[in-house]
Amino acid sequence: MKGQNTNPIQLLQPYLVLCTDDYQRIIENRNGISHFYEFRAGSGEEGALQAVPDGSVDLLFGISENQVRAFIGGTVFQAKAWELPEEELYFGIRFFPGQCRIPADLKIEEIIDADIEISDDHFIKEFSRQLLEKETAKERSALFREWYCRHYSLKEDAAVMLEPYIRNRIYETRGTVSMKQLAEDTGYSACYIRRVFSRVHGVPPKVFGKFVRFQNVLEYLTYGNRQSGMVCNDMGGIAMEYGYSDQPHMIHEFKHYTGTTPEAYMRLVRGYKF
């Protein structure tokens, strides 16, 4: 089957860069982890910090002088305010879609579009105690890497065998592969594919594909063409390149997912380092 070893999406959350203080990111790209990140909640305009759809799961630790609170959250469905106490230090882990081992007493459906506190989880408590002793993002990342690999591993079942192929086909096509094509590629029915994929991601392939397509557009508007370093302002051309039916379709979806238009977004991120 096709669809193996495809580089995943960037999993951009631009408002973390735009609306927090002292933001930093440490690329991981292994053990199912995209990257670690750390920031302090800014004192900017209320509601300015938002999450955007990315299909992933985050673990977020709020660190105060003598306490750590832990939260797990799945992808949002649209731009959504991310309310955090000001001036607290946050350490986060962003997992690649479908590759986070969530606590045994939770289902993926429960954390989609939600942030659930898991501070009382036995393993999380153990990690949190050690986290308080670390002073830098690099030290915290190393601690989590060792702890996570020791306590969590992938489960071998039918979903784990089929789901990566479906996910990679969605990546390959930048979110535009059809259910019909997936059924033809795999030999499974569309109904079975939806069930297997949703069991891992909490959303069906079609919805995940929209997130992937959006993240590809977001990456282009944020970084530009990797070779030329330039961003094309031809919204019609961008819409066609990324598989939208037309320019209004892309703009409508982009605004739904970010709370702003592509043009306004480009002005917003100009001058920031992502």
Helix tally equals 11
Cα Rg: 19 Å
Q: Tell me how many strands there are.
A: 8
The neighbouring-strand order within the major sheet is 1-2-7-4-5-8
Number of domains: 2
Secondary-structure element order, N to C = HEEEEEEEHEHHHHHHHHH
Indicate the percent of residues in helices: 40-55%
Distance between the termini: 35 Å
Could you tell me the mean pLDDT? Answer: 89
Tell me about the largest β-sheet.
6 strands, antiparallel
Shape: globular
Strand residues, percent: 15-25%
Task: Write a structural description.
It is a single chain. This protein has 274 residues and is of the alpha+beta class. The chain has two domains: 14-151; 170-269, Homeodomain-like (Arc Repressor Mutant, subunit A, Orthogonal Bundle). The protein is built from eleven helices and eight strands. It has helices at residues 14-19, 108-111, 122-131, 137-151, 158-172, 179-186, 190-201, 205-223, 235-241, 247-258, 262-269; strands spanning 20-30, 33-41, 50-51, 57-63, 68-73, 80-81, 89-95, 115-117. The strands form two sheets. The chain has a six-stranded antiparallel β-sheet with strand order 1-2-7-4-5-8. It has a two-stranded antiparallel ribbon with strand order 3-6. α3 packs antiparallel against α4 and α5 crosses α8. The longest helix has 19 residues, at 205-223. The mean pLDDT is 89.
Give a quick summary of the entry.
42% of the residues lie in helices and 17% in strands. It has helices spanning 14-19, 108-111, 122-131, 137-151, 158-172, 179-186, 190-201, 205-223, 235-241, 247-258, 262-269; strands at 20-30, 33-41, 50-51, 57-63, 68-73, 80-81, 89-95, 115-117.
